[in-house]
Write a structure and sequence with these properties.
This protein is about 55% helix and about 5% strand. It is mainly alpha-helical and about 300 residues long. It folds into two domains: about 5-100, Tyrosine recombinase, N-terminal domain (DNA polymerase, domain 1), CATH 1.10.150.130; about 115-290, Intergrase catalytic core (hpI Integrase, Chain A), CATH 1.10.443. It has a three-stranded antiparallel β-sheet with strand order 1-2-3. The protein is globular, with a radius of gyration of 23 Å. It starts with a helix and ends with a helix.
C-alpha cells in the first residue's frame, strides 16, 4: 500500500481521533484493499488523488464480488474519513466522495433475548460455585445489567466500580467516559467475585480475568455468553452484543425514556438508539391484537 499519506491518515485516526485498535485495523485493511484495486485496475498508485469514478468503480467491484451492502458502506465511510482528513490537511482541495452515494441497506432489527429467558438464566440456572462459575455469572449479569459493550467489559477496572453509589465508570468509544448505574445485587456480586478472585491469587487492576489470572479477552467472553445463552434461548445469534440489545429493549419495553437509554448505552446520537423502538412497537402490536375486540 502506498503511501506515506495513508500511513499519516492511519496515525491520525489512532492517535488524534483515538479510535480503537480494532477500528484502526479495519481502516488499514480498507485502505489497503482500495490501494490494491487502484494499482491493479488503473495502474494508479496515489489513492489521495483518486477521482470519484475510480471510487465508484471500486464500490461496483465490491458489489459484484457479492459483499453485503453494510460492509461496502463501511468501506465507503473509511474513504469519506480519508478524504475529509486530506481536505483538513489541505493535501487536496476537492472531495471526490461528494459524488459517491452509499448503498441502500435493509434495516436490521436488533436481536434480543426475552425477559423471561433472561430471568430463567440468571435466577434458575445453576452456575458452578468456584471462581470460574462466579466469574461467568458476573459476566452475564454485567453485560445484561449495564448494557456495556464487550470491549468496555474487558477494559473495566476495579477502581471504576463505586460500591456506595452502585455505579460503574465506563470508557467507551473514542475514550468517552460515562457513568452507568447497576443494581445493588450486582454490586454485591462484584464484591464476592473480587474476594474469590483475590483468594485465587488473581489480583489484577482489571475486573475480568481468565482462568490463569490474566486479562480477559474477546473470545473467552464470547464463548461464555454463547454457552449460557444456549441454555435458555434458541436464537441463532448468541453474543455479548445480543445482551446489550436485550438491555436496551427491556428498558424501553418497561417505560424507560429513549434519551436516557441513549446516555446509558453511550450512543452519540438518538438515531442509534431509535432502532430499539421497532421491537417495542412489535410488542405493542401483539398486545393490541390480543386485547382489542376489533383486532
Amino acid at each position: 500500500m502506498n503511501s506515506e499519506i495513508v500511513n499519516f491518515f492511519l496515525a491520525y485516526i489512532q492517535h488524534e481521533k483515538r479510535c480503537s485498535d480494532h477500528t484502526t485495523t479495519a481502516y488499514r485493511n480498507d485502505m489497503s484493499q482500495f490501494s490494491h484495486y487502484l494499482a491493479n485496475t488503473y495502474d494508479f498508485h496515489h489513492p489521495q488523488l483518486a477521482d470519484h469514478q475510480m471510487i465508484r468503480s471500486w464500490v461496483v467491484s465490491l458489489s459484484e464480488a457479492k459483499l453485503d451492502s453494510r460492509s461496502i458502506n463501511r468501506k465507503v465511510a473509511t474513504l469519506r474519513s480519508f478524504y475529509k482528513f486530506l481536505l483538513f490537511k489541505k493535501i487536496i482541495d476537492q472531495d471526490p466522495m461528494r459524488k459517491v452515494v452509499a448503498m441502500k441497506t435493509a434495516k436490521n432489527i436488533p436481536t434480543f433475548v426475552r425477559e423471561s429467558e433472561m430471568e430463567m438464566l440468571l435466577d434458575q440456572v445453576e452456575f458452578p460455585e468456584d471462581f470460574e462459575g462466579v466469574r461467568d455469572k458476573l459476566i452475564m449479569e454485567l453485560l445484561y445489567g449495564s448494557g456495556i459493550r464487550l470491549s468496555e467489559l474487558i477494559e473495566l477496572e476495579v477502581k471504576d466500580i463505586d460500591f456506595y453509589q452502585h455505579t460503574i465508570k465506563v470508557l467507551g468509544k473514542r475514550n468517552k467516559e460515562r457513568i452507568v448505574p447497576i443494581h445493588a445485587n450486582l454490586s454485591a456480586q462484584i464484591k464476592e467475585y473480587i474476594e474469590i478472585r483475590d483468594r485465587e491469587g488473581f489480583q489484577h487492576h482489571l475486573l475480568i480475568v481468565s482462568n490463569k489470572g490474566e486479562q480477559g479477552y474477546p473470545v473467552m467472553i464470547q464463548r461464555i455468553v454463547k454457552k449460557y445463552l444456549s441454555l435458555v434461548t434458541s436464537l441463532t445469534k448468541k453474543s455479548p452484543h445480543v445482551l446489550r440489545h436485550s438491555y436496551a429493549t427491556h428498558l424501553l419495553n418497561n417505560g424507560a425514556d429513549l434519551t436516557a437509554i441513549k446516555d446509558l448505552m453511550g450512543h452519540t446520537s438518538l438515531a442509534a438508539t431509535q432502532v430499539y423502538t421497532h421491537n417495542s412497537m412489535e410488542k405493542l402490536k401483539k398486545i393490541y391484537e390480543q386485547a382489542h375486540p376489533k383486532a
